[in-house]
Write a structure and sequence with these properties.
The chain is mainly beta. It has one helix spanning 105-108, and strands spanning 6-11, 15-17, 40-42, 46-47, 55-64, 73-81, 96-97, 113-119, 125-134, 140-148, 161-172. The chain has a single domain (6-172), classed as Jelly Rolls. The longest helix has 4 residues, at 105-108.
Length: 175
């Protein structure tokens, strides 16, 4: 029995979570959220499609208005659902402030899946990072961005996004 000749990982079409993106989220002027009630925003529902990739690379860029605290984080969480709209962790499926259950985001956000974090440098302006690989649990995804950078994000919406790139694996055999 012959083994396949090689294993290949390709990339599909990128989905963008941002204002005007594949799934909308308004990140302009998102406050620093070092409390249980401020600094988090949820996205509109992202539809991965009827046939979605098993793995997605997640990268992001955020534009910080004042000097961020070195080593602080902007955390990215995902909430899943089998239908569009509300997901786990009390996400609504709409671009809105995220307060979780009983206006306590810290207690609610643990019911979502932590995807990764942009670890901040002590600087202002755009900061970008590859934050992780996501394995979606369902077709529909709501994202929560929790700003713990020590500063608000800027009012420039265009410089702030989360990109998801499907990683498509295949085994190829040449004869």
């Amino acid at each position: 029995m012959a083994l396949p000749d090689y294993f290949k990982v390709g990339e599909g079409t990128v989905k963008t979570v941002k204002s005007g993106g594949t799934a909308g989220i308004t990140l302009a002027s998102l406050a620093n959220g070092n409390t249980t009630t401020a600094g988090a925003r949820q996205s509109a529902t992202l539809d991965l499609g009827a046939l979605w990739a098993e793995r997605w690379r997640v990268d992001c860029q955020f534009d910080i208005a004042a000097t961020a605290t070195a080593g602080s984080a902007i955390n990215i969480y995902a909430s899943y659902s089998s239908t569009t709209g509300a997901g786990t962790g009390n996400t609504s499926g709409s671009d809105a402030t995220y307060a979780g259950y009983s206006s306590n985001k810290d207690a609610s956000i643990v019911q979502t899946e932590f995807i990764g974090a942009l670890i901040c440098s002590a600087t202002t302006g755009s900061q970008r990072a590859n934050v992780g690989i996501m394995f979606p649990k369902a077709r529909y995804v709501n994202f929560v961005i929790d700003n713990r950078s020590g500063a608000a994000l800027t009012s420039t919406e265009a410089n702030q996004f989360v990109n998801l790139t499907p990683l498509e694996s295949s085994i190829e055999d040449t004869v």
